[in-house]
Design a protein that fits this description.
- The protein is α+β, with helices and mostly antiparallel strands.
- The chain folds into 5 domains: 83 residues, Helix hairpin bin (Helix Hairpins), CATH 1.10.287.610; 242 residues, D-amino Acid Aminotransferase, Chain A, domain 1 (2-Layer Sandwich), CATH 3.30.470.30; 108 residues, Nucleic acid-binding proteins (OB fold (Dihydrolipoamide Acetyltransferase, E2P)), CATH 2.40.50.140; 155 residues, DNA polymerase, domain 1, CATH 1.10.150.20; 76 residues, BRCT domain (Rossmann fold), CATH 3.40.50.
- Helix content is 36%, strand content 20%.
- The strands form 7 sheets. Strands 14, 15, 16, 17, 18, 19 and 20 form a 7-stranded antiparallel β-sheet that branches. It has a 5-stranded mixed β-sheet with strand order 2-13-10-3-9. A 4-stranded antiparallel β-sheet has the order 5-4-7-8.
- The structure holds ligand D41.
- The site of ligand D41 has 16 residues, from strand 3, strand 8 and strand 10.
Length: 695
């Protein structure tokens, strides 16, 4: 494509006709160079800033090569903003310190609406009556590094880090490699000195790519995009910096501002016009509008291509900014309105032990309440005793607590150097904190357990909650809070008592302060739940080790509750997906007098199910097939997939052979996949499997 533009005659030919031809030809070459440059810039922006590439790598390389060939053939015509130059010079041995012409201010910050209002009030206090309640401009607070750029007559000449605000480091060579940083500003050719300040950051996608690459090469990875950006800017070798996906976003003009511009929003619009990238801004008139912008940014945060840690609010009028000035290096006319911190330090006051439905004893940390990620947190999960040992945490320790989005808060760090002298190691309780029964920690399990069973009130409560839950008896009119209220008042002790509640309607009204209508709704929901399926009923009983799929398999295998209850361990073991441990747990469950009593009471109260249509093994769709599972499944644990396959009649084996019918392959499937391919075994992806099992 470029061949026709390459020189065909000697450039030194000076006959008049040739000169005229050359001028015409030069124009054509410049036009062609501009086409390549603009295409490369558009692509660079799409790739590095928006993370939405528009060209294939090969197309991009072709474009670069074409431009390079033209520049080599016509060095005199090289365009000052050619991205070909943007690859970095020779390595430096150190960065030069540069004093800023005008000091780089820092930003104060607020975290809450009330503090934002205080900030705006303080601004008002320094303005005349006529100037009160000025307009504000709001921006994203990009989580990068502040730098100052200088352009002399439109040409990029220097980039300096913020440093201490007075003096920073000359990072010009590295800044040149930032793809969306303009090296030439045609629109600023008449401006003797233009200083633009802004933030250098690494977009999330580029950061992830970089870390993935580092991992593959067993190099050190970066903790977050900000560190990665900082590390890249401080690269002494610009070639390395050039390989890092950095972006520059302008946020202020500190020298050379055209005098037709009188607002911050106008300044950013102009920066955008002349070729800079700026982030989305909004002009607001009052605190409520500012709050609405802040909240909309929180909403959009996860979708943004880069990390932000809040918003920045600035008085929009540049004249008022001037008038307000600054105090101890912070402008009085701007502040950061930051997002709540997601990691904070607080004291772990105590560790309590909670008892779950099947007796599992889990430690819960009680904290001195703190705000994390915008909500007050006073409890953290510590998972299990092993986690306490891993963290080496004790009551009284200072801890870092992390909470992001909707995740459950957790301890990410223990500050051992601040440990109180009198603290003592945590010990696992030897008896249940609720019922005093002995606690056991089975050798191969992470969780300690109360041996009290349904004698333990904590387990009774949890058993009730499980029983009414959606996938069990599905009594959706009976919420957890009410259920626990009934339990605490002694109206409901066992799950069978739920079906006697209709005899206690007056007490529900007097003790629980429920309205008549609510009581009727609850009673109706309970009544409706009586018609169920055998598998739901088995699941609702809450037998340890018997999840939904196992309950389905037991219902299918035995077809009848009485037969199931009478089954010995050998018979139970014939059920798909029931191993020795579950078989023993189920066997014991159906021999415990208390359990038999509850089951009898439930049936007498009128709980019933339709006859199970037992399929002969030969009717099952996967009868006679042997499956192997490999890799990580996204939608379920492997055990669950195994249970589902067995429920359909398949045998599940651990190794591939010529007899294998199919391989269910998840992510990162390794040697089994290779072997299956070699043997011509059918390979089933997770999606296909889910469709097969009807999910
Ligand atoms: O996005 C940012 N991180 C950002 C930082 C921004 N959008 N605006 C800023 N404005 C200023 C003033 C008001 C002083 C011109 C800033 C910063 N300063 C700043 N960044 C680092 C220190 C100060």
């Amino acid at each position: 494509m470029t061949d026709s533009l390459l020189p065909t005659t000697s450039q030194k030919d000076t006959s008049e006709k040739t000169i005229i031809n050359d001028i015409a030809n030069n124009d054509a070459i410049i036009v062609q160079m501009r086409v390549f440059i603009d295409a490369l810039k558009t692509h660079n922006n799409a790739y590095y800033v928006l993370d939405n590439p528009i060209l294939e790598d090969s197309e991009y390389d072709q474009l670069r090569r074409s431009l390079m060939e033209l520049e080599e053939a016509y060095p005199d015509l090289m365009q000052p903003d050619s991205p070909i130059n943007q690859v970095g010079d020779t390595p430096l041995s150190a960065f030069t310190q540069v004093t800023h012409d005008i000091q780089m201010l820092s930003l104060g910050n607020v975290f809450e609406y009330d503090d934002l209002r205080d900030f705006m009030r303080r601004v008002n206090d320094r303005l005349s009556v006529a100037q009160q309640n000025p307009e504000y401009e709001m921006e994203l607070k990009l989580d990068g590094l502040a730098v100052s750029l200088k352009y002399v007559h439109g040409k990029f000449v220097q980039a300096v880090t913020r440093g201490d605000g007075q003096t920073g480091e000359d990072i010009t060579q590295n800044a040149k490699t930032i793809r969306n940083l303009p090296l030439w500003l045609a629109a600023a050719a008449d401006i003797e000195l233009l200083e633009v300040r802004g933030e250098v950051l690494m977009p999330k996608a580029g950061f992830e790519r970089l870390n993935r690459l580092a991992q593959e090469n067993e190099d050190k990875t970066f903790a977050n995009p900000r560190n990665a950006a900082a590390g890249s800017l401080r690269q002494l070798d610009p070639a390395v910096a050039a390989s890092r996906p950095l972006a520059f976003y302008g946020y202020s003009i500190n020298q050379g501002l055209p005098d037709t511009i009188d607002t911050q929003s106008g300044a950013l619009a102009w920066l955008k016009d002349i070729g800079f990238t700026v982030s989305a801004v909004e002009v607001v008139q009052n605190p409520r509008e500012a709050q609405a912008y802040y909240e909309s940014v929180i909403e959009a945060r996860a979708e943004l291509p880069f990390e932000i840690d809040g918003t920045v609010i600035k008085v929009n009028s540049l004249a008022l900014q001037q008038q307000l000035g600054f105090l101890s290096r912070e402008p009085r006319w701007a502040t950061a309105y930051k997002f709540p911190a997601e990691t904070v330090m607080t004291r772990l006051q105590s560790i309590e032990w909670q008892v779950g439905r099947t007796g599992q004893i889990t430690p819960v940390g009680k904290l001195e309440p703190v705000k994390v990620g915008g909500v007050t947190v006073s409890n953290v999960t510590l998972h299990n005793f092993g986690e306490i040992q891993r963290l080496d945490v004790r009551a009284g320790d200072m801890v870092s607590v992390h909470r992001a989005g909707d995740v459950i808060p957790k301890v990410t760090r223990v500050w051992h150097d601040q440990r109180p002298a009198d603290s003592e190691p945590v010990i696992l309780p030897s008896t249940c904190p609720v019922c005093d029964s002995p606690v056991v920690l089975p050798e191969d399990e992470a969780l300690a357990r109360c041996t009290g069973g349904l004698f333990c009130p904590a387990q009774q409560q949890e058993a009730l909650i499980h029983f009414v839950s959606r996938r069990a008896m599905d009594i959706d009119g009976l919420g957890e809070r009410w259920l626990i209220g009934f339990f605490n008042h002694g109206l409901v002790k066992t799950v069978a008592d739920i079906y006697q509640l209709h005899n206690h309607q007056d007490e529900l009204i007097t003790l629980e302060k429920l309205g008549e209508k609510s009581v009727q709704n609850i009673i109706a929901a309970i009544e409706a739940s009586k018609h169920t399926t055998l598998s739901r009923f088995i699941y609702a009983l809450g037998i340890r080790g018997v999840g939904e799929t196992t309950a389905q398999n037991l219902a299918q295998q035995f077809g009848d509750l009485d037969i199931l209850m009478a089954a010995d361990i050998e018979a139970l073991l014939l059920t798909p997906d029931v191993g020795a441990i579950t078989a023993e747990l189920a066997y014991k469950f159906f021999r415990a007098p208390h359990n038999i009593e509850v089951i009898t009471a439930l049936r007498e109260a009128g709980v019933y199910w339709d006859k199970v249509e037992q399929k002969a093994p030969s009717d099952l769709p996967l009868d006679g097939q042997t499956w192997v599972i490999t890799g990580a499944l996204a939608s379920m644990a492997r055990d669950e997939a195994k249970a589902k396959l067995q429920a359909l009649g398949a045998k599940v084996s651990g190794s591939i052979s010529a007899k294998t019918t199919a391989l269910l392959a998840g992510e990162k499937a390794g040697s089994k996949l290779t072997k299956a391919e070699k043997l011509g075994v059918k390979i089933v992806a997770e999606e296909e499997f889910l469709a097969m099992v009807g999910e």
